[in-house]
Amino acid sequence: MSETEEVKAFYKEKHIAFVVDQDSHRSFEYWLSEHLRMNGLYWGVVSLVIMNALEDALPQNEVIDYILSCWDEKTGGFGAFPKHDAHILSTTSALQVLKIYDNELQVLGEEKKEQTAQFIKGLQLSDGSFQGDRFGEVDTRFIYTAMLSLSLLDELTIEITDPAIKFVMACQNFDGAFGMLPGAESHAAQVFTCIGALAVTDNLHLLDDDTKLGNWLSERQVLPSGGLNGRPEKLPDVCYSWWVLSSLAILKKKHWIDLQKLEDFILECQDSKDGGIGDRPDNQTDIYHTCFGIAGLSLIDFEKYNFKEIDPIYCMPTEVTKKFRKWKK
Ligand SMILES: [Zn+2]
User: Fold this and answer.
1) Residue 115: count of CB within 10 angstroms of its CB
2) CA of 264 relative to ligand 1 center, distance in Å
């Protein structure tokens, strides 16, 4: 092999240590991130489980106890941190982590499962959209997380999905991509949430021609770096390896981009000394980009890395998602 064909390494052990150490850093930034703590836990657990390292790296009982301590009795959902108000994003993350450990959600119990479903259903507005919490922000992200959470709880019904999906379809733009609200600018993360909501509810057929959308998604690859961006004219960023590639995977169009170049870009964003993955080469690493970099590598070639296969719709291992009943009505 010549020097120009040098194969880039994946620093698995360093990434495991990086994820596990998140909780012990206790930096100022860490405490500032209280409102993201439950999401952070999900990003860490997904990173580890995909690398086949969850069991040895994190104490399962402590993780589950932490999640249960974030239960908000007033509203019946999960907050990001103990005593925080429930929000749909932290509720989704809590359910995803619990489901990875315990497919039947037995640890939650029937009563809390029911209350969680009621909390989510109560966030739906008359136009089909969802608020993140009772304070009223609306975004297609919340429709996706609501559909996903209700699917994890086996609580999806047509009364909920029909208006929600109508709202999602109203967010599609002339370029084939989606925004956060009807008429809002197309953005790759919003494409993922809209395609994901369609996929969870078995409504992908509503995209009668997905060529335009596939083209828009594949134009997100920035050359020569090979990384993906979220909108035209923006810099590539590792997290779009997930938002864009998972959307293409759901549409069965992964091969519409150069996967080798994307793989190289993700590997270049690793910190070879301290572990973790940043948004771009040589930038500060964080748990969010570490998770979506690893998730992206799993979508590209999970066997090569000896990873678990990831489900592009749920961002959880397929060995977990294939066990529960998918929405088929
Ligand atoms: Zn990013």
Assistant:
1) 19
2) 17
Residue type, 89: L
Q: How far is the CA of 183 from the centre of ligand 1 (A)?
A: 24
* CA distances for 75 relative to 78, 86, 198, 235, angstroms: 9, 7, 27, 40
- Distance of CA 292 from the midpoint of ligand 1 (Å): 9
User: pLDDT of 304-329, one tens digit each?
Assistant: 999 999 999 999 999 999 988 665 54
Domain locations along the chain: 10-121
User: Could you count the other beta carbons within 10 Å of the beta carbon of residue 255?
Assistant: 9
Q: What pLDDT sits at residue 329? A: 45
Residue 40 Cα to ligand 1 midpoint, Å, equals 14
DSSP states along 114-172: HHHHHHHHTTB-TTS-BBSSTT--B-HHHHHHHHHHHHHTT---HHHHHHHHHHHHHTB
